[in-house]
Amino acid sequence: EIPIAILSTKKPKDLAGLRIYFDAGSNDRYGFGPTNVEFSKQLKKSKFKHTFNYIKGGGHSWGTDSIQRAMQMSFPFVAKGFAGKPAEKTVKKPTEKPKAVKGRQSGAGK
């Protein structure tokens, strides 16, 4: 089902226990940024509880620091779900730029 169809087929009470989180980058090469901004606006207008983070400068690649910034916001959201804690209205933004992780580069063979 297309996510935007939720707005025409469900009511907020139907999804009361569902924790919704999504993010998108402003530089996403597939154009997901503006689409997700609009989806978030429509969810808010229809009173669906959700958390959306628009990552300025974020793209659509694992090889950028923007994906690490996104994970600093999304992982705590997911962890709280596993712990049975309610979702916060907003996800706290990371306070500093993530540090590079040492190790193999993505795609490196054995």
Could you explain the architecture of this structure?
By secondary structure, the protein is of the alpha+beta class. The chain is built from three helices and two strands, in the order αβαβα. α2 (about 30-45) links the parallel β1 (about 20-25) and β2 (about 50-55). Residues about 95-110 have low confidence and may be disordered.
Summarize the topology:
Blueprint: H1 6-9, E1 21-25, H2 32-45, E2 51-55, H3 65-82
Parallel strand pairs: 1-2
Question: What pattern of helices and strands is seen along the backbone?
Answer: HEHEH
Rough outline: flat
Radius of gyration using CA atoms only: 16 Å
Order of neighbouring strands in the sheet with most strands: 1-2
Segments where pLDDT lies below 50 for 5+ residues?
94-110
The biggest sheet, with number of strands, parallel, antiparallel or mixed sense and barrel status, is:
2 strands, parallel
Helical content class: 25-40%
Let me know the number of strands: 2
The helix tally amounts to 3
Rounded mean pLDDT is 78
Structural class: alpha+beta
